[in-house]
Amino acid sequence: MVWDIIRAAVTMDISALMRIALANILWVFIFFALAYIFFEGKSPLRAFIHIFLAALFFAQLVPFLGWKEYTAASFLAFYYIIDFSLLKWAETTPFFANRLVWVEEFTFFGSLIFFNLLA
Questions:
Q1: Which residue, 29, 54, 93, 118, shows the most beta carbons closer than 10 Å to its own?
Q2: What letter does residue 69 receive in the DSSP assignment?
Q3: How far apart are CA 35 and CA 87, in angstroms?
Q4: Which residue has the higher pLDDT, 60 or 46?
């Protein structure tokens, strides 16, 4: 599915992209709603593409690398401790105050990589 989307996007096959989007209309709506909420309604199409590509990247990268499942209790404890501390720091820093979604995404992927390299 992911490679079909990438192939259709690279070749600009609009009919294939529409067929995939309409076959998965619930997921399109969920990603669009998440993007609208996370980015506070600013440039919703760009936010949708960002959230959508992050999910595709995550869905393909973890199994490809043979990493452990990210739902393990030890990972979640590690992730939440790092996430809460970095988000609190980013909220008080003027440069990162408007970029909390990016900080959170970097924290998630960084902690996932760190956890799988050490565990």
A1: 54
A2: P
A3: 18
A4: 46
Give the C-alpha distances (Å, rounded to integers) separating 93 from 11, 81, 84, 106.
42, 19, 14, 16
Instruction: Find the Cα–Cα–Cα–Cα dihedral 61, 12, 102, 39, rounded to 10°.
Output: -130
Instruction: Output the CA–CA distances (angstroms, integers) from residue 11 to 4, 8, 68, 82, in the order listed.
Output: 11, 5, 34, 40
Range of the domain at 56: 1-66
Asked whether residue 55 falls in the same domain as residue 94, the answer is: no
- pTM higher than the cut 0.85: no
Res 70: pLDDT: 58
Query: Which residue's entry shows tokens 């949708």?
Result: 48
Residue 37 scores a pLDDT above 70: yes
Domain check: are 5 and 62 in the same one?
A: yes
**Model confidence band, residue 66 (pLDDT cutoffs 50, 70, 90):** confident
* Shared domain check, 3 and 58: yes
